[in-house]
UniProtKB/TrEMBL annotation, chain A:
Residues 99-119 are annotated as: Disordered. GO terms for cellular component: negative cofactor 2 complex. It is found in: Nucleus. Keywords: Nucleus. Residues 13-79 form the Transcription factor CBF/NF-Y/archaeal histone domain. This is NCT transcriptional regulatory complex subunit B.
Automatic annotation (TrEMBL), chain B:
Residues 6-69 form the Transcription factor CBF/NF-Y/archaeal histone domain. Forms the NCT transcriptional regulatory complex with nctB and mot1. Its main location: nucleus. Signal peptide: none annotated. It comes from Trichodelitschia bisporula. SUPFAM superfamilies: Histone-fold. One of its GO terms (molecular function) is protein heterodimerization activity. This is NCT transcriptional regulatory complex subunit A. It is found in: Nucleus. Keywords: Nucleus. Belongs to the NC2 alpha/DRAP1 family. GO terms for cellular component: negative cofactor 2 complex. Transmembrane segments: none annotated.
C-alpha cells in the first residue's frame, strides 16, 4: 500500500482497507449495519469520481482567474458551484489548521538550517542528549 | 460523526492530477479535498445505510447505494457509475 511511484501509475483508486475503516467509523453508532464488500468497492468508485468532479471544477475556476496553481479558494468555490456549500465551513477549518502546522514546520526546518551544523553533527548532538537524559533517569532514586 | 482515519493525501493528489488539464496544486489543496471527500462519504454512506434499513437489511448492498444515489440531486454525477448495478427486487 505504498504511495511511491514505482509501477503503480494506474492505481487511481483509494486503498480498500482505509475506506473500509472509515465506513466502519461512520456506521459505528448504527448497531450491526455493515457494508458488503461489493458496496465498498462501488463506493470507492464514487469517491474517485467525486475527487475528479471537484478537481475539474476547481481547475476551471483557477484558470478563469489566470492562476496556474489550484488553491483552497478554488476548491471552496467549486464546492459552492457544485451544490456542496455546506462543506465549506469544515474545509476552512482544515485549511487554517494546515496553515498553522505549516508555520511550525517551516520554523523547525529553518532552525535546523540556521544551526549551520551538518547532519552528522546534529545526530551526534541528539545521541548526546539521549545519553545525558538516560543517565539522569537512571541516577534518580 | 467524527472520523479519525484519514485518506492518503498523496493518493488524492495523484487522482487530481490524472486529469491532464489539472496542473499544479497547492500543498494544502489535497488536504482540503480529503476533508470534502470525508464529508461526502459520511453523507453517501449514511443514506445508503438508510436504504438498507428501509428494506430490513443489516447489510448495505450495491442496490441500496444505487437507491441513495438516485434519490438525491447532489449525487447526479454518480448516475452513470450506479447504472450498472441491478435494482433491488
Amino acid at each position: 500500500m505504498s504511495d511511491r511511484e514505482f509501477g503503480n501509475n494506474d492505481d487511481l483508486s483509494l486503498p480498500k482497507a482505509t475506506v473500509g475503516k472509515i465506513i466502519t467509523e461512520i456506521l459505528s453508532h448504527d448497531n450491526g449495519i455493515t457494508f458488503a464488500r461489493e458496496t465498498r468497492d462501488l463506493l470507492i468508485e464514487c469517491c474517485v469520481e467525486f475527487i475528479t468532479l471537484i478537481s475539474s471544477e476547481a481547475n476551471e475556476i483557477a484558470e478563469k482567474e489566470a492562476k496556474k496553481t489550484i488553491a483552497c479558494e478554488h476548491v471552496t468555490a467549486a464546492l459552492d458551484q457544485l451544490g456542496y456549500p455546506d462543506y465549506i465551513p469544515e474545509i476552512m477549518k482544515v485549511a487554517h489548521e494546515h496553515k498553522t502546522q505549516q508555520v511550525t514546520r517551516e520554523k523547525k526546518q529553518s532552525k535546523i538550517e540556521k544551526s549551520g551544523l551538518t547532519e552528522e553533527e546534529l545526530i551526534r548532538q541528539q545521541e548526546e542528549l539521549f545519553r545525558s537524559a538516560t543517565n539522569k533517569f537512571n541516577a534518580a532514586p | 460523526i467524527e472520523v479519525r482515519t484519514k485518506f492518503p493525501v498523496a493518493r488524492i493528489k495523484r487522482i487530481m492530477q490524472a486529469d491532464e488539464d489539472v496542473g499544479k496544486v497547492a500543498q494544502v489543496t489535497p488536504v482540503v479535498v480529503s476533508k470534502a471527500l470525508e464529508l461526502f462519504m459520511i453523507s453517501l454512506v449514511g443514506k445508503a445505510a438508510e436504504e438498507a434499513k428501509a428494506r430490513s437489511s443489516k447489510r448495505v448492498l450495491s442496490s441500496h447505494l444505487k437507491q441513495a444515489v438516485q434519490k438525491d440531486e447532489q449525487f447526479d454525477f454518480l448516475s452513470e457509475i450506479v447504472s450498472k448495478v441491478a435494482d433491488a427486487p
